[in-house]
UniProtKB/TrEMBL annotation:
<feature type="region of interest" description="Disordered">
    <location>
        <begin position="202"/>
        <end position="225"/>
    </location>
</feature>
<keyword id="KW-0804">Transcription</keyword>
<keyword id="KW-0805">Transcription regulation</keyword>
<feature type="domain" description="Transcription factor MYC/MYB N-terminal">
    <location>
        <begin position="5"/>
        <end position="170"/>
    </location>
</feature>
<dbReference type="Pfam" id="PF14215">
    <property type="entry name" value="bHLH-MYC_N"/>
</dbReference>
<dbReference type="InterPro" id="IPR025610">
    <property type="entry name" value="MYC/MYB_N"/>
</dbReference>
<protein>
    <recommendedName>
        <fullName>Transcription factor MYC/MYB N-terminal domain-containing protein</fullName>
    </recommendedName>
</protein>
Amino acid sequence: VNHLLQHTLRSICTESQWVYAVLWRILPRNYPPPKILTWEDGFCDFAACVKSFKQSSSGDSEAASAEPLQPELFFKMSHEVYSYGEGLMGKVASDSSHKWIFRDPADQDSSLVSPWHGSLDPHPRTWEAQFKAGIQTIAIVAVQEGLLQLGSLDKVLEDLNLVILLQRKFTYLQTIPGVFAPHPNTLNHSIHQAAMIAGSSGRKIPERPPLSKSLNTGHSSPGVVPHLHPSMSSLHALLSKLPSVSDNALVPPP
């Protein structure tokens, strides 16, 4: 279960034109603003980036002096933090909307323009380096736990079917216990509230359960029994329930 999110991000890229997928998580969820968007997990097909970059840069002296998308540049995004409701990323997350951004703004299809295409909010500073490294399209889609960011080496037109399918996929993931580890502040707040209620009623306050480290997110989660690891068959069973990104059938929003 700890790796189900990583498998989901990988499947988004293997089933479509996207070469990377990143989930930005809203933290904390159970507190009033200010909230932030932080890196939760990401996947990038670097081999595809190198192959496509070599093909596109052959005969182009300007492109030949640049480099394809490198791991250092991709994971540099993990240091970014965005304010919820502010800027390009924060507004898309708070409005539960989506936005397609192209390397060349003049190359956009006017018939497929989302409401945020007219926004004057600047894109994050790491995106310019990605565009130079061959990324042509970046899409951001608000999902259940935060914001999904996708990058492609091709021009990918805005697709409302894809937006709905991604939102359904992450809504389903959110229902699986253990995929998204609780934030430490949220956990401490819940334990504190339970202790206050128990103390006021005269009941014995239970001891705090041990915390174990999540392999996927780095956040602490309530005590996990070590021998309860899912088998590969159970992992494939969970993945099979996720809506396929390659499915183009229009489905009503949940």
